[in-house]
Amino acid sequence: RHNFIIAIDGFSSCGKSTLAKALAKKLKFAFIDSGAMYRAVTLYFIRHHIALDDQQAIDNALNDIHIDFIPNALKTEIHLNDEDISEEIRQMYISDKVSEVSAIKAVRTAMVAQQQKLGSRRNIIMDGRDIGTTVFPDADLKIFMTADPKVRAARRYLELTEKGEDVTLEEVVENLANRDRIDSTRAESPLRQAEDAIVLDNSNLTPEQQLNFVEEEYLKIK
Ligand code: C5P
């Protein structure tokens, strides 16, 4: 492998994508949001009424699902079968279901294969839950992010309400706790800190401080 891979894992709403995006811009790496892929699958399953215990329906669905990341001037859009679903997948009804869908073995096998392909040639930063443990166990740099659950919920609540979504802080707190529980306890590649990951607790750090922290780690090894 000649490309450089940075894996950023951690709990829900720790600011992984914010950091990954900023870092990708600074280092001129490609950024891949693996969570968006699981969200896209979840949207498809909801729209097509796929029962989560119907293995045949799940396999057929996975064969029909094509996910693309399309960079445009402002941001990278995520497309599901050629439809831009970037905004749709951020909604609460997707967040409420995504961890259940992500725990399905066939779903993970399909997504991990695509993620490995996306990271096979370019320098990339990928964020998720199992990037440093399962997708790229040999990643050059692994960061594991955590933050105080209250800080995480407050940030996510602000983000959703600013977009006009009708949620309460309690709903957000409950959603984060549920997802963290399902993600950490599932049988198939659960959320775990890789042994060689560097922990970044950003409860009291500005985005700039987080960026500097990771950039310094990168400069040590590049
Ligand atoms: O990163 P984000 O919060 O958008 O991810 C949504 C959900 O997708 C997570 O709660 C988790 O259930 C699932 N996920 C996963 N493995 C990844 C990335 C996300 O299981 N690598």
From TrEMBL:
The keyword Ribosomal protein does not apply. GO terms for cellular component: cytosol. Keywords: ATP-binding, Cytoplasm, Kinase, Nucleotide-binding, Transferase. Its EC number is 2.7.4.25. Its main location: cytoplasm. It catalyses: dCMP + ATP = dCDP + ADP; CMP + ATP = CDP + ADP. Residues 6-212 form the Cytidylate kinase domain. GO terms for biological process: nucleobase-containing small molecule interconversion; pyrimidine nucleotide metabolic process. One of its GO terms (molecular function) is dCMP kinase activity. ATP binds at G10, F11, S12, S13, C14, G15, K16, S17, T18. The keyword Ribosomal protein does not apply. SUPFAM superfamilies: P-loop containing nucleoside triphosphate hydrolases (SSF52540). Belongs to the cytidylate kinase family. Type 1 subfamily. This is Cytidylate kinase.
